[in-house]
């Protein structure tokens, strides 16, 4: 039985964890300087650099040991607080009320797995950052501390629901490896296209720089044009395959063995191949649920879900992602989160001027700049294919984005659909809305169109250029419901 009333330290190997964490931060920030110092300097300077580096590592080791000695944690039973002290030369004392603790996650990175320790993350309401992190403790200690920290939270839930608290968990959903593979090869297309375009432009720029500055480059003098174009095409294909493989590996490594268990009316998520994560989703804390699916994923019956809880705001690092769900699994998750499958109610469409304005910003202005620059060139006709390809590609994206943009309203839910390729449905419960912003430009008043923003404790969703009169009617209903509702959303 662990006694958390007395201050205690992390496992002794916590010194190594803190040392490696600090070293990684410095290497990430200073690695270009270190490479230049080692490659450009002469032998004497290199010896000085190596000596300075060894001295720096010794300094980091001493700092890590002092951080380890200063770091303590315990529970103040009288004040019902969890106390964490940190620092090196000065001491910082963090006090967390037990009743404010919303979530305790147990994680394990690759280094922690090798060493055999775990990390504890403590999350409270009203903050987008973790209140406290304990970087190196044994699994029995982490589990016992997690259970003790959540005792007050579970007791309050039991009083609120008038139902006994259940500790046992039951298997709910396990995302298969096949689903992760499908998700990996059908995600991040925009990022892939961006990387390919950047690669192609860089390669073209390097080709044009061949030869002397005053000499006109003639590709035929170096290689047969047909072979050259075939090689370029092959390189692009290989590059596309490489990027897809990287996306696939990243998805599988990050979400490997993704398991969802039902535990005391909550969802317990465990996943990760190298870095193991363990987190909890509480239905009352869920603010925004996004369901993302593109054409290929729909044909393969897979989709992604992103869940933002209270305090997550708009940070991509804190929102919880569930990849590779099929239709049945995603409906089961929605059933547990909301007690039903949110249906699409009354539909609101954006005004067609939204499409016109998007075309002006994304097509007319860039093409005007392109034609102005090309008019200054000697042979602008050689580049005429670029605006055609750009107009067709962007035009399709804008049209499908406009056609998919809809807002659906029921008494309980607001569902906002958006996206050109990856179609996203964001679900918000009306009683969890914290604030509402409506805006209307002066030239939109005669057209009766405006923009709506719904602010929650987990972020903001918006709908642009809809019927402003209808929007204001719903705003009045939502404001009344917010004021009169006593539903728990934390």
Structural descriptors:
single chain; alpha+beta; PH-domain like; seven-stranded antiparallel β-sheet; four-stranded antiparallel β-sheet
In short:
The protein is of the alpha+beta class and 490 residues long. The chain is built from 13 helices and 20 strands. A hairpin with a 5-residue loop joins strand 9 (266-271) and strand 10.
Describe it.
With 490 residues, this protein is of the alpha+beta class. The chain has three domains: 14-165, no CATH class; 282-350 and 405-484, Roll (PH-domain like), CATH 2.30.29; 353-402. It contains 13 helices and 20 strands. The chain has helices spanning 14-40, 43-70, 110-115, 139-149, 151-161, 177-185, 189-208, 225-255, 295-300, 327-338, 353-374, 385-404, 468-484, and strands at 72-76, 81-87, 91-97, 101-107, 118-124, 132-137, 169-174, 259-263, 266-271, 277-281, 286-293, 303-309, 320-325, 346-348, 406-409, 413-418, 423-429, 435-439, 449-456, 459-467. The strands form five sheets. Strands 13-12-11-17-16-15-14 form a seven-stranded antiparallel sheet. Strands 7-8-9-10 form a four-stranded antiparallel sheet, covered by helices on one side. A three-stranded antiparallel sheet has the order 1-2-3. Mean pLDDT is 82; it is low at 211-215.
